[in-house]
């Protein structure tokens, strides 16, 4: 590989440093005649937990897929780890892919593989490691996400919803990424399971210096784990800032979201 991403350089554990790990600039995405994103700008800082919110159908998943290179864009620039992703050769792109982990909505584990094998999928794809070492590494990830060791041998349909999310997170962490993308990670979990998952995300970010980009509808997550929140609306990021910024923001959608009945119950 000609160029690699020095992940340790980005695992800062301190959002104060404000280094931009992901930058989306002037992004436009269209499907046929429908423009979903139009001149969208967003910076994500190394070490922060960013909550990404917006009305249903506003384009949160489209932006995530665009950042991951799974969606075509009609305009704009995406930079990851300081590199414009369109200017990378194959090896450089691979190095960037290896420095990112993704947890898609619903976990998306392979049903025919047990948890250990699911976690090893990225290792098999990108690394050439002896089986014993891969097993040891996967067991470490299982421990890291708070699953019991015996979960390693279970298949996805033998797991609870919360365990599926943790197993999927372990797989996202398989290659020790510097940034993870979580698409609605607590959807479908009961409030206690969701709070436990939030705590885990916060812990991982604090201890590993992991940057977390989290698409969420979960107000508890926004209040408890996110350093910053970005709000998508009218095809752009309308506002981005801390939860305190959101609470005093005059944007009507942000106001109703953060000062609605449910939010008031959480803030109490
Ligand atoms: N591959 C595609 N082809 C055509 N239209 C698409 C495609 N992907 C997304 N869209 C459209 O883009 C818009 C935004 O969708 P997206 O899934 O990003 O919304 P979202 O903000 O993630 O919504 P939710 O919160 O409900 O998950 C929708 O109108 C959707 O129909």
From TrEMBL:
Keyword terms: ATP-binding, Nucleotide-binding, Transport
Taxonomy, superkingdom: Bacteria
PROSITE patterns: ABC_TRANSPORTER_2 (PS50893)
Single GO MF annotation: ATP hydrolysis activity
Gene3D superfamilies associated with the record: P-loop containing nucleotide triphosphate hydrolases
SMART domains: AAA
SUPFAM superfamilies, sorted: P-loop containing nucleoside triphosphate hydrolases (SSF52540)
ABC transporter domain ranges (all copies): 22-259
UniProt-recorded name of the protein: ABC transporter ATP-binding protein
């Amino acid at each position: 590989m000609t160029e690699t991403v020095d992940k340790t350089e980005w695992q800062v554990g301190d959002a104060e440093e404000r280094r931009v790990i992901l930058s989306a600039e002037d992004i436009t995405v269209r499907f046929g005649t429908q423009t979903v994103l139009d001149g969208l700008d967003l910076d994500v800082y190394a070490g922060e937990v960013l909550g990404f919110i917006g009305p249903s159908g506003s384009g949160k998943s489209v932006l995530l897929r665009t950042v991951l290179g799974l969606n075509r864009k009609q305009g704009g620039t995406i930079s990851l780890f300081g590199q414009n992703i369109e200017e990378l050769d194959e090896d450089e792109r691979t190095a960037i892919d290896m420095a990112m982990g993704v947890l898609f909505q619903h976990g998306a584990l392979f049903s025919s593989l047990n948890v250990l094998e699911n976690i090893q999928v990225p290792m098999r794809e990108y690394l050439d490691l002896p089986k014993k070492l891969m097993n040891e590494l996967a067991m470490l990830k299982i421990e890291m996400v708070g699953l019991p060791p015996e979960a390693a041998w279970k298949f996805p349909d033998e797991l609870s919803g919360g365990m599926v999310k943790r197993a999927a997170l372990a797989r996202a962490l398989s290659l020790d990424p510097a940034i993870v993308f979580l698409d609605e990670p607590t959807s479908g979990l009961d409030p206690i399971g969701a709070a436990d998952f939030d705590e885990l995300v916060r812990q991982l970010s604090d201890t590993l210096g992991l940057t977390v980009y989290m698409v969420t509808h979960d107000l508890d997550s926004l209040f408890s784990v996110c350093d910053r929140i970005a709000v998508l609306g009218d095809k752009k990021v309308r506002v981005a800032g801390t939860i305190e910024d959101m609470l005093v923001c005059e944007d009507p959608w942000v106001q109703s979201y953060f000062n609605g009945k449910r939010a008031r119950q959480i803030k109490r």
